[in-house]
């Protein structure tokens, strides 16, 4: 094999191409060659070669009057094709197994549909403990589940009022949230912490912690939850594994295009 044919750990041409695409997407307004080169800390001739290639492929166009470059809608069509083919559980499954092994508990993936939590995937823990309501396709209330609270964070108060009017806040245990004030307080804590609990709110003896999954718009589109008996899901165990859980959720979010950050320990 020739020296030039050897694979490298990093393809700088591909990286440069993606940086140009991301820069044009962030700026939203067309940009001059000189401005692109300056933003990327590269010389104009190098950037021009990449722009010409992107233009030939139909991803970039140049305004003949201003000579400014901009992204075409082809990038959107590619994104739509990817979005249409993605199956969230398919690529989250391996990460969920890591979480289950780390906690030694069951892990669920859920989304919102018709103002309810719908479970779309799960990994059972070593002792197979998984509540009936968390089976694939099962539905659960939003006000008393960890995932449900997270999914409510992107909604305004009007939506909360509609949820209460249409679904109510039914009580399942003595710990269930049953008033709007309690729910708003729980959502405030979830928004601050970027995770949420179900502390025996759906079932006595079961505790859950959930973290958000975000898409490229930063919207919370799903949640990962870890469920186990309260005697195992202690504060100490959760705190010990919390950073790991959030990092895994961030990795999945990044696969969806989210600009997430990794939580650092306080």
What strand order characterises the main sheet? Answer: 5-4-3-8-7-6
Helix content: 40-55%
Structural class: alpha+beta
Mean pLDDT: 86
N-to-C span: 50 Å
List segments where confidence is low: pLDDT < 50 over at least 5 consecutive residues: 1-7, 262-266
Mass-distribution shape: elongated
What is the C-alpha radius of gyration, as a whole number of Å? Answer: 23 Å
Task: Please work out how many helical segments DSSP would assign.
Answer: 9
- The fraction of residues in strands falls at 15-25%
Number of strands: 8
Give a short account of the largest sheet. Answer: 6 strands, antiparallel
**What's the helix-strand series?**
HHHEEHHEEEHHHEEEH
What does this molecule look like?
With 266 residues, the protein is of the alpha+beta class. It has 9 helices and 8 strands. The chain has a 6-stranded antiparallel β-sheet with strand order 5-4-3-8-7-6. A hairpin with a 6-residue loop joins strand 1 and strand 2 (69-71). Mean pLDDT is 86; it is low at 1-7 and 262-266.
Task: Give the helix/strand layout.
Layout: H1 12-27, H2 33-40, H3 44-56, E1 60-62, E2 69-71, H4 74-85, H5 88-103, E3 106-113, E4 116-123, E5 139-140, H6 146-151, H7 157-167, H8 180-193, E6 196-199, E7 206-214, E8 220-229, H9 235-255
Antiparallel strand pairs: 1-2, 3-4, 3-8, 4-5, 6-7, 7-8
Helix pairs in contact: 1-3, 2-3, 5-9
Keywords:
6-stranded antiparallel β-sheet, 8 strands, 9 helices, two-stranded antiparallel sheet, 266 residues, disordered N terminus
């Amino acid at each position: 094999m020739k020296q030039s044919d050897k694979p490298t750990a990093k393809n700088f041409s591909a990286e440069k191409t993606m940086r140009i695409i991301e820069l044009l997407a962030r700026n939203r307004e067309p940009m001059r060659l000189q401005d692109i080169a300056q933003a990327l800390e590269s010389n104009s001739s190098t950037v021009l070669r990449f722009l010409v290639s992107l233009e030939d492929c139909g991803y970039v166009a140049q305004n003949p009057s201003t000579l400014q470059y901009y992204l075409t809608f082809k990038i959107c069509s590619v994104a739509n094709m990817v979005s249409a083919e993605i199956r969230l559980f398919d690529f989250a499954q391996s990460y969920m197994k890591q979480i289950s092994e780390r906690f030694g508990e069951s892990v669920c993936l859920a989304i919102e549909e018709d103002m309810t939590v719908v479970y779309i995937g799960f990994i059972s823990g070593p002792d197979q403990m998984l509540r009936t309501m968390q089976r694939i396709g099962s539905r659960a209330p939003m006000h008393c589940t960890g995932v449900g609270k997270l999914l409510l964070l992107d909604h305004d108060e009007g939506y909360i009022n509609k949820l209460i009017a249409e679904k109510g806040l039914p009580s399942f245990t003595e710990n269930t949230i049953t008033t709007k004030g309690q729910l708003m307080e729980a959502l405030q804590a979830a928004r601050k912490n970027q995770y949420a609990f179900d502390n025996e709110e759906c079932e006595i003896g079961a505790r859950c912690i959930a973290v958000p999954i975000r898409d490229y718009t930063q919207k919370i589109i799903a949640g990962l939850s870890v469920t186990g008996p309260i005697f195992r899901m202690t504060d100490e165990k959760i705190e010990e594994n919390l950073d790991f859980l959030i990092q895994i959720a961030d990795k999945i979010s990044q696969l969806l295009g989210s600009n997430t950050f990794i939580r650092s320990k306080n």
